[in-house]
Structures are given as structure tokens and as C-alpha cells.
Amino acid sequence: MRLWLAALAAVLGCATALADTPAPAELAFVSEHAVEGMRGGNLSGLALCDGELWTVSDRDDDRAYSLRPDETPGSVWQAKAELFSAPGLPDSGLSWGERVRTWGMSLLRGGALDLEGISCDRAGNRYLVSEAYAGVLRLPQTGEPEWLPLPKSLLRQARASGLLMVNNAYYEGIAIDPDGKRLWLAAERQRRGLLRLRNDNGTWKCDGACVMFNEGGTAMPPAALNSDKPWPLDFADLSLYQGKLFTLERLLHQICRRDADSGAVERCWSFAAGALTPERRYPLPYGVAEALVIDDKGAWIGLDNGDTPRANGDLRPYVLRFAAPAEGWLGGQ
Q1: What is the DSSP letter of 235?
Q2: I want to staple 3 with a disulfide (CB 3.0 to 4.6 A). Which of 157, 209, 236, 319 is the partner?
Q3: Cα–Cα distance between 77 and 201 in angstroms, integer?
Q4: Residue 238 and residue 255: Cα distance in Å, rounded?
Q5: What is the pTM of this model?
Q6: Which residues form the Phytase-like domain (predicted)?
Q7: In 3D, which of 328, 295, 306 has the Cα closest to residue 47?
């Protein structure tokens, strides 16, 4: 009972904090970089691992890609694939019917695992989140890939909070601390939320309540997208920086700094001005930003445009670079 009460208090506190947050300042756009060499396109996650960017595609089940971050304006990045073989499917608690629907969708779309995020620890292990099967695949430096044995209570508590109720709207982002001891997952939409786990001597457990934050609701996207209706609030990715959790919020075209223990929003920054210039715009009402890395110098934001070309007809994935705020990511209130 105490866990449920703590979770409820966290939700109410976060809702109040969000309402009191001032309008986000605009991040300065620095550069954009087309990405070539991703077999399936659909860049859907980013992680900075020992100075190298890594990404995944939600259409590729057997590879992660390394990227050399060249900040020369307009430089094209070449993705280098690292192949792996996932060991079957995770036992995350999804029903037989849900797994069958997911399998059927993969036949039409491609990408059975629907990899939507990537993170890494200082030991060089990479962690890939599967939206389709609500699992986390660990790619070790040496040895075979393995699905993390997530606790069954994770899915139960998520659904008791209204999360993970909509097919193709499960986990959309992942972050792990440098020690590999704490793991965060982002539930995408309808409702959106943040979940937290800890590694207790090789056993993954909920860190207090599984759900640390959740909320529903809709909002209008930026005016440049010319939407005639509101869309569900969402999370598209996570990045952990200096002990703070940063959420990529695709619909609102913003990055928010949040408390890593409660999920309470502390400050937000908009990237709409740089991302929605006429030549960078896509004819989609909710945005295409799906991947986030925060570092000392700024933010890398990866775009998953699916099969939709941007205004100039370009179908390649892109990574955008934005400068850090003048006061730094941890400055200000």
C-alpha cells in the first residue's frame, strides 16, 4: 500500500510542477547531419558510449549502428552496423493475444522487436529496448546478448497506472546509469510515464514503486505543423546527464530536465524553431524526433521519419545538433 501511495504522491507532485513550469526557452540550432548506411532507416534511439554515438532502427532486429559525430555543418554521417542475434523473445508478461498481434504487425511493417531506444553503461554494455515485446536486450562487451529478467510486477504496476495499454505505444526510451545499477524506461503515450528499476546483485527489481511518474492529456503541436486538433502527450526518448533525467517530448518539440527519483519536471527547452524550418519540416502533425543524447556541449536529436520525405524530398534519417543553454543544462530554475 505504501508503494501505491508513494506513486500517487509522485504523480500529483509532478502534475503541479508541470503546471508551474515557465514557457521553455528556445535552444540554438547548430547543424544537421544526414545518416546513410542504415539498412532499415527509421533511426529511433541514440546513446553516447565512450565518445561514439550509437543508434538503432525500429526496422532492424539484428544490428546496432555506430556513428562518428562530426559536427562540421552539413556533414553526412556513415552508419557502421554491428550484428547480433537476439535470443528468442523476452518473457515480459504480455498476453498471448498481444504477442500474436505484435507478430502480425511486424509482417506488415518489418522489425519484429521494434527497437526504440539504446543506452550504455561505463563498462561498454549496451541496452536496447524493444517496444513490441516490452523488453530490454543487453549487448555485453563480450559474450552473447541476453534479455534482462525484468520483474513481472513492472508490467502489472504500469498497467494499473494506465500505462502500456495501447499497442505500439509501450516503451519508447531507455536510460541506464554509468554503473549499470539503475534503469529508466519511458512509456510513450496514452498515458505517458516513467518507470525505474535497480539491479540488486544481478536481479532487476522495481526501485520503490515501478512507476515514478505518469500523466494523460493532449496538447496542440507547434503552430508550424498546422494541426487542426490536439494529440496525446508523449515521451520519445530518455537521456541521463549528470544525475538528471532528460525527456524528449516529441509532440511539444521540447526537452525537459526531470528529477531522476520522482520524474518531477524542473525545466524545459524548446527545439521547435530549429527543427521546423520549412526545409526541415515533415508533413506529419506530431513531429518525428525520436532519439536524444545530452552532453556538455548540447543535445543530439535523431529523427525517425519512417517512409515520409521532408520538404525537399529527402528520405534519409537525420541527426540535429542544438547548443546547450548559456547557463548549462543544470543551471537555472
Answers
A1: -
A2: 209
A3: 39
A4: 9
A5: 0.91
A6: 41-191
A7: 295
Predicted confidence (pLDDT) per residue in 145-159, tens digit: 999 999 989 999 999
User: Which amino acid belongs to residue 61?
Assistant: D
Residue with grid cell 525537459, as numbered in its chain: 256
pLDDT tens-digit series, residues 221-270: 999 999 999 999 999 999 999 999 999 999 999 999 999 999 999 999 99
Q: Alpha-carbon distance 223 to 22, whole Å? A: 19
Structural element, H or E, at residue 203: strand 203-215
- Which residues are 232's β-sheet partners? 218
Neighbours of 216 (CB within 10 A): 13
- CA R_g for the chain: 18
Assess contact for 320 and 275: CB atoms under 8 A: yes
Instruction: Give the C-alpha distances (Å, rounded to integers) separating 218 from 185, 221, 285.
Output: 21, 9, 13
Residue 97 binned pLDDT confidence (cut-offs 50, 70, 90): low
Q: What gap in Å lies between CA 326 and CA 56, rounded to an integer? A: 31
Alpha-carbon span 318 to 32, nearest angstrom? 7
Residue 329: Cβ within 10 Å count: 21
CA distance 87 to 220: 41
Q: Cis bond leading into 191, ω under 30°?
A: yes
Alpha-carbon separation of residue 64 from 54, 67, 118, 129, 289 (angstroms): 7, 10, 9, 12, 19
DSSP 11-68: HHHHHHHHHHPPPPEEPPEEEEEEEE--TT--EEEEEEETTEEEEEETT-SSEEEEE-
Domains and CATH numbers, the chain: 2-323 (2.120.10)
**pLDDT tens profile 5-48:** 444 444 444 443 344 556 899 999 999 999 999 998 899 999 99
Between strands 29-36 and 77-78, the pairing is parallel
Number of H helices, E strands in the chain: 4, 24
